[in-house]
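Please predict the structure of the following assembly.
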Amino acid sequence: MPEKYIGVFDSGLGGLTCVKELMELLPNEPIVYFGDTGRVPYGSKSNETIIKYARSDINFLKTFDLKMIVVACGTASAIALPEITGELDIPTFGVIDTAAAAAVSATECGRVGIIGTAGSIRSGAYEKKIKEINPEIITTATACPLFVPLVEAGHTKTQVARLVAEEYLEKIKSAGVDTLILGCTHYPLLKETIASVMGEGVTLIDPGKIVAGYVREYLSRNKMLALASDYKFFVSDCPDDFEKLAKDFLQRDIPGGVEKIDIEKYV
Amino acid sequence: MPEKYIGVFDSGLGGLTCVKELMELLPNEPIVYFGDTGRVPYGSKSNETIIKYARSDINFLKTFDLKMIVVACGTASAIALPEITGELDIPTFGVIDTAAAAAVSATECGRVGIIGTAGSIRSGAYEKKIKEINPEIITTATACPLFVPLVEAGHTKTQVARLVAEEYLEKIKSAGVDTLILGCTHYPLLKETIASVMGEGVTLIDPGKIVAGYVREYLSRNKMLALASDYKFFVSDCPDDFEKLAKDFLQRDIPGGVEKIDIEKYV
């Protein structure tokens, strides 16, 4: 019997940081990835649009035989997942709940910072989840709209990246946090710059990495682990650009190439 | 009889720099504007997608009684306009041909620089048009993918804007141009920074301004001038964000508010 896939989607490239962790932690799992490069970015769009897009992304992934869905996009996890979880008949993991739990465990001083896209931060999803777990934790959140374009332009360790990080992180630093959630899948590529601006003693939480750990734990506990990997990558536009940039995110070549599909068909 | 509209569209906000010029030059013209904020940016998408989007943008505008269409988007003018001009039964002006002609008139040393989005620059549309007018002119073109996000994040005159401009303009400066086409409607907001990096003696060509001049000339020559203005603004997502940011582009409040429409209906 053929193995079932873990379906992963993101608004574009960023979710590959999560796929990288899944590949490392679960080298025998089949993974099908969809990056919505034709409608990227989600972070600046309205809730209604983000929910509509996430629904069609899942409809496309469901054309494969899936055993679970991972919403690797911070914005879609924050805004769409609460709306659509009830519609799904397979387990679905987003990056919010798992990273919020990890941040609550990590903080010693009880102050957690959150950075993300405009949409994620506007939703307050991380704060709500953190308060649910421990109402005494003080959260400080800031939208960093330039981080995604900077990463995609290769500005991860430059003076420009540093200046923009200093601007965005000022409020979070002043709040005296000891834990910072990198609430967008692109941000792990800015980890060095962010760590250097935040200074020593601040734990950076990478939600893609955290959710990969949860996925492994879940599959193992439920005896759902596969025995042979298989990778499929799909995008809604510009497969060549995706393939080129993907190396930075995946830290290896895309196995098996990238195929373009018409996402608007999956309403 | 009610007046006919000038229909203007852009991938988002940027086309408002062109609307501003139209309002100033032609204060009695009715204008209907569509900003495709739900599918912005166009510059990083494939040609096929850009043409599909431009076609639906025009289909929406054609629900009004139009006398002409202005494609205020550099990317759509470069990539979609050559494909779809033949399908239209009213005069259509893009920003490429008009700005190319203006650059050819402006240069004295015969060397012209062009900056724009990845899509515009990849198309080579400005170079082709310039060579068509005068094959002896030497052109140097560079994509500036961070300029649009910088403008939308309010980074127009900051150190970050300056550093990014220095990086992008290095090749153009070395080429010794005396004329530079700002080939994307967002770029006029970076005019001061770009001018300061380029140094004295370089003429900056603002295609939105140039096309507004052509529109006035055309309407006047064909006795098509209107007698009473009327403004309508539509977007495909986030009308509130559009209205807030629009002030920077229009240098006044949006007259009459902004309405959201479902652009995917206008296939």
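Chain B touches chain A at residues 38-40, 44-46, 49, 145-146, 149-150, 152-153, 155, 159-160, 163-164, 167, 237-238, 241, 264 (CB under 8 Å). The mean pLDDT of chain B is 95.
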